[in-house]
Design brief:
The structure holds two protein chains of two kinds. By secondary structure, chain A is mainly β. Chain A has two domains: about 50 residues, no CATH class; about 90 residues, no CATH class. Helix content of chain A is about 10%, strand content about 30%. In chain A, the strands form three sheets. Chain A has a five-stranded antiparallel β-sheet, with no helix packed on it. In chain A, strand 1 and strand 2 form a beta hairpin. In chain B, about 35% of the residues lie in helices and about 20% in strands. In chain B, the strands form two sheets. In chain B, strands 3-2-4-7-1-8-12-11-9-10 form a ten-stranded mixed β-sheet, with helices on both faces. In chain B, strands 5-6 form a two-stranded antiparallel sheet. In chain B, helix 4 crosses helix 12 and helix 7 packs across helix 11. The longest helix of chain B is centred in the first third of the chain and has 16 residues. The relative contact order of chain B is 0.19. The chains are: A mainly beta, B alpha/beta. Chains A and B meet through helix 2, strand 3 and strand 4 of A and helix 1 and helix 5 of B.
């Protein structure tokens, strides 16, 4: 009986069950504030009332202290390379031609890095401590997105020593 | 075995739309309140932290990890998470304490259900394979359950409306309730059906919010000098995920968990039951063997506001509040997960012996 059943049955190795779920996503009060400012071409962070670290983009809390962050801080679009990688393989859905540089960048005035692209540089010269600045899209293309900055390009400034990365004031780095 | 006490519980308001809040912004106000209640500064002051949430609600992978931003995990803390209601986070925390790995624990649950279409989000979350192509939602499944009960004569629409009416009236005394009012049985029955035989009033609302609790050993509760209630029993049982293989008119898993948790070892003054649909409160009360002496869902239950992934913990918290205030001496809290009461957790909470 069981043999017969097997003979007359197709081997089914999969079913299609497409799932489409629609969400009305909200970033949160603090990220929404950040995105509103980015649309105006300004990078902002939030300072922890306890440890004074500045987070960018802010999530509404200091993850280290577990307290809400409320004080908004205007940051520079000049930044320091904290870490980086060179992407050599194409990533599905990503229109950027490899090889390209993805870097952890700490903007002046903040203590925490965000991830962005680097360009206008020789990939082989990219290094930790390197000074960079955002290259913005034309203002009429600005939206609620970090894509308003096309990429970061190297600045002709002295490197920041590793122990000082993430501790540069918003006024900048003289070396 | 170490006795475990509840020493603090807080819940946010249940609101239909928490607006721009993200996970962290939902959690911080409620855990801050529970820190104040217990007299601790932050998560560093407890031995273990466990949360309950569901990434499907936000529609973002690893959304639960973002919740840790609310805790202050520097230096590192011992932390865990269940992709379930935080009542199961309480269960995990109790195991941690019982094993001697912790003397105290912070438990929190949070859910922002408003961004998605909750009934279909929930059914897809728990069964993305077998029932998924049918696109069946949790309200339709519950409606079929209610239909079975009505056709077998196990309940009447009047019985269901009585549950709703009592919930709305009890919720008038619950400051966190989303739906409350002086609603009569006739008012409910006058409503048209929504997903037959269910009326909208038979279905819990979609709510955003969070709740948090601190538990510890009885010794620790005394050291902290806090009023407390003792968790004297807890157990959970699950049924098959195929609704066609279950007796949907009964809750076998609740009955079994109740026996194991020792529900029947004493009088039950108060019971808070996680019944997202009116007819399910009747199933649960029967499975738990509750009689007229028990006050059922004095908070209004989840028909008054349903914080997904937090409401199960809130049921335990509501019983705790009534025991610590002296309103009740012994109570039962129930939490559920899955369609048609698939998975059920039963907790027995009692007055501290010194206070008796």
């Amino acid at each position: 009986m069981s043999e017969q059943t097997t003979e007359n049955t197709d081997v089914i190795t999969g079913i299609e069950a497409p799932i489409y779920l629609k969400y009305n996503f909200t970033a949160g009060a603090a990220p929404a504030r950040f995105l509103t400012q980015v649309k105006e071409g300004v990078l902002t962070g939030q300072r922890c009332p306890q440890c004074a670290q500045v987070y960018v983009p802010p999530r509404g809390s200091c993850a280290a202290c577990g307290v809400p962050t409320e004080e908004e801080v205007v940051l520079s679009d000049k930044a320091t390379v904290q870490s980086f990688t060179i992407v050599s393989i194409p990533i599905p859905g990503n229109s950027i031609e490899p090889p390209f540089v993805v870097a952890n960048l700490v903007p002046d005035g903040a203590n925490i890095s965000f991830i962005h692209l680097m360009s206008e540089c020789d990939n082989a010269d990219v290094h930790i401590g390197q000074r960079v600045q955002g290259v913005w899209k034309p203002q009429e293309e600005w939206g609620y997105s970090m894509d308003n900055i096309r990429y970061f390009k190297p600045l002709d400034e002295p490197d920041v020593p590793v122990e000082k990365i993430g501790k540069i004031p918003v006024e900048g780095w003289e070396g | 075995m170490k006795e475990i006490a509840i020493v603090g519980y807080q819940q946010s308001d249940a609101v239909s739309d928490a607006g721009a809040c993200n996970e962290v912004e939902l959690i911080i106000p409620v855990i801050s309140k529970v820190y104040d209640q217990v007299g601790i500064k932050n998560a560093q002051d407890v031995d273990f932290v466990c949360s309950g949430s569901c990434d499907y609600l936000q529609g973002a992978a690893f959304a639960f990890v973002m919740g840790v931003d609310a805790l202050g995990a520097v230096p590192p803390i011992k932390e865990s998470h269940v992709e379930m209601d935080a009542a199961w986070a309480l269960y995990e925390s109790m195991l941690k304490i019982r094993m001697g790995h912790a003397d105290s624990a912070l438990i929190y649950g949070f859910g922002k259900s408003s961004p998605g279409e909750l009934p279909i989000v929930l059914s897809q979350q728990l069964d993305p394979y077998y029932l998924a192509p049918q696109w069946v939602d949790t309200i339709s499944l519950a409606a079929m359950q209610a239909r079975l009960m009505l056709d077998k004569g196990l309940i009447s629409e009047q019985d269901m409306a009585e549950v709703v009416s009592r919930s709305r009236r009890n919720a008038l005394n619950n400051p966190h309730a989303q739906l409350a009012g002086d609603v009569s049985v006739q008012d409910v029955l006058a409503q048209e059906t929504y997903v037959s035989p269910l009326r909208k009033a038979d279905i819990c609302p979609v709510s955003d919010g969070a709740s948090a609790m601190v538990i510890c050993t009885v010794e620790k509760a005394k050291e902290w000098g806090l009023p407390y209630a003792v968790i004297s029993g807890i157990d959970h049982c699950i049924e098959t995920h195929n609704p066609g293989m279950r007796d949907l008119t009964d809750s076998v898993s609740t009955r079994k968990a109740a026996e194991n948790a020792g529900v029947h070892n004493g009088a039950v003054d108060v019971a808070e039951l996680y019944a997202p649909f009116s007819h399910q409160e009747i199933i649960l009360a029967r499975a738990l063997g509750l009689g007229d002496a028990t006050s059922v869902n004095p908070s209004g239950g989840v028909l008054a506001g349903n914080l997904m992934m937090a409401s199960g913990l809130s049921r335990i918290g509501e019983v705790f509040n009534r025991i610590v205030s002296g309103e009740a001496q012994r109570g039962v809290a129930h939490a559920t997960s899955g369609p048609c009461l698939q998975h059920n957790l039963v907790t027995v909470i009692e007055q501290a012996k010194e206070a008796a």
